[in-house]
Amino acid sequence: MAENEYVPLFETRQVKGRILFRYIAASILLGICFIIMYRIRYFPVGGKAERWTWIGLFLSELWFSFYWLLTTVCRWNAVIRIPFIHRLSQRFGKELPGIDIFVCTADPLLEPPSMVVNTVLSMMAYDYPPEKLSVYLSDDGGSNLTFYAMLEAANFSKTWLPFCKKFKVEPMSPEAYFRTASEPLNVQEWPSVKRLYEEMKMRIETTTKLNQIPEHIYKQHKGFREWNFVTSKRDHQTILQILIDGRDTNAVDIEGNPLPTLVYLAREKRPQYHHHFKAGAMNALIRISSKISNGPIILNVDCDMYSNNSESIKYSLCVFMDEEKGDEFGYVQFPQSFDNLTKNDIYGCSFRVIQKLEVHGLDANGGPCFIGTGCFHRREALCGKKYEKNFRFDLKKLNNTKVNERASLLEETCKVLASCTFEHNTTWGKEMGLIYGFPAEDIVTGLSVQCRRWKSMFLDPERDGFLGVAPITLLQLLVQHKRWTEGHLQVFLSKYCPLLYGYKKIPLKLRLAYCAYNLWAANCLATLYYVVVPCLCLLKGITLFPKISSPWVLPFAYVAFSHHAYSLGEFLWCGGTFLGWCNDQRMWLFKRTTSYLFASFETILKLLGYSQLAFVITTKVADEDISKRYDQEMIEFGVTSPMFDILATLAILNLLGSFGAIKKVTMHADKGFKVLDQFGLQILLCLVLVTINLPVYQALFFRMDKGKMPSSVTYKSIIFALLACTLAVY
């Protein structure tokens, strides 16, 4: 091979099984066409109730068909990317760009400092030249407890980093490593490093529990004096501390190797200024880091997403540093995976099929969306620069500018960059950095980058790049998805609507793919109609589906069976279990009837000016009883919530509908077969919904633990369901 011959650093391959997927999709589309023909041809001519319920069901089926078509088009040409990190090392050696890593936290009570420390340490332990690695923590809680934890992390990193490099430790989070790894033979350092970590963890957790920094520790670092001027976490000056200065020759580990730079930032907050939540924190980090390290590549992670793969940086650089295509890419997105999932993923948090199949479809049409964590960004792209086809980026030279100021001087001069007023009359939050004004700031930011002609890529290595903490209660899950769904819908209804904002900027398939996620919330009404109306019509005696003996039942049966059978096959192929798929279907129903519904109402209220933008942090802590029930795969209810009122009412409603159907079949033996023939599909739908809701019935009537459904929810749901049935019958 000639020296100047181009050898790509990554390869693009077609996803396996795409031909089968296309055949099944085409057959389902044919079945949908027959269903539409049936709805039009057999439109009821008599009875007002029959006509309106038929119209409602027809509209619901049209929406489901449209949404299915959206997701199918997005997956039509799915691809996977294969990076070659050995080629990267052969070609560039140690001539690699600087990497700035951003970790964001907001509340020491919901996001414990001990967890944040593990994430930070895992980021510092990458298999990458430490002098080119800088880790920044944004503490939007402005907590001296988090600052203290970072000091502990800075000290422990002197032992942890050489241990990781010597023994090729993965995962690089001390907590995850010592929890999952058994003590290796002939490794004398193992017990001592574990003991040092446990002692550090105990000090951090004790300090957090007491909510007070011990006096002798308070005097050890000048940074603690900053809290003498802090009024509250929403009213304080900028606190910027360079805890490890990677330029300092004395900043070395116990073996004399250089350490990465470590920086703590609590940006200025004042009650009269909007701080723009995580987007504002990220933008402050972009500006601060540009003066301290100015790495051309930025990795951002949530504080619970520790690094699980020591090669993740090199994987991303295979994309950015490819000589022929690398300059086209603005960001590289890794999957959002979790390390606390149960065997059967009780809450359906794994996004298994979405990340293994659907996102690869986006990748083939311009690139995946930015999901807010586990993403490597090109600094220029994130800061508003437009892609220019003939412009070449030399990542090795972009960060060669050395900052000569002392750390203490840098701390003072950079504070203004994180002040409340710095962004006034600038394009920050509009054209530069993360976009403001949306709960899903990540989605709209990624879309903006792509509309500036940058491409993005999805990398899913065999070993997960990052692992985080999934919700372990049902309410946490529903609230989290409400926020995500609300953010997506607000994007769709804003000037950033992909269909309009992306016109002539990104491919049509990519715009449609964005819409598939932006319109999550719009599924709520059609789903609610399908859950409620057929059940009530069954009690009323109104037929909504063809008779079992009619040939028109075939398209309904085929579409339902083939869609779910293929869905199950995909889920199993992606590494799931049958029970995991059942749980995934259950959560799909729960989210559509609660989270999506509330997200829709909240968005409408915001558009009308009756609601303000808010950012809800998902708690990363739980008591021992809840964790135990989660490990046993018991759905956690335990508290009152309007969402639980809806779930319980719908469950009881379908239970009553099923009882009513069984009564009709069994009480009139002579008419039983006729009833089954006429209402067979409606009865089957009710029974399927009853099966899905079995955990709800257990929580309502049988469970005695603290995770059961509260009595008030039980009483209200029974009353609402009986009232609905009474009104339907009469």
Q: Which spans of ≥5 residues are poorly predicted at pLDDT below 50?
A: none
List the quaternary state of the chains: single chain
Specify the overall morphology.
globular
Q: What name goes with the CATH superfamily of the largest domain?
A: Spore Coat Polysaccharide Biosynthesis Protein SpsA, Chain A
Mean pLDDT: 92
* Radius of gyration over C-alpha positions, nearest whole angstrom: 28 Å
Alpha-beta classification: alpha/beta
Name given to the CATH architecture of the largest domain: Alpha-Beta Complex
Query: Can you list the strand order of the major beta sheet?
Result: 5-6-4-3-7-11-9-12
Counting H and I runs of at least 4 residues, what is the number of helices? 27
Helical fraction equals 40-55%
CATH class identity of the largest domain: Alpha Beta
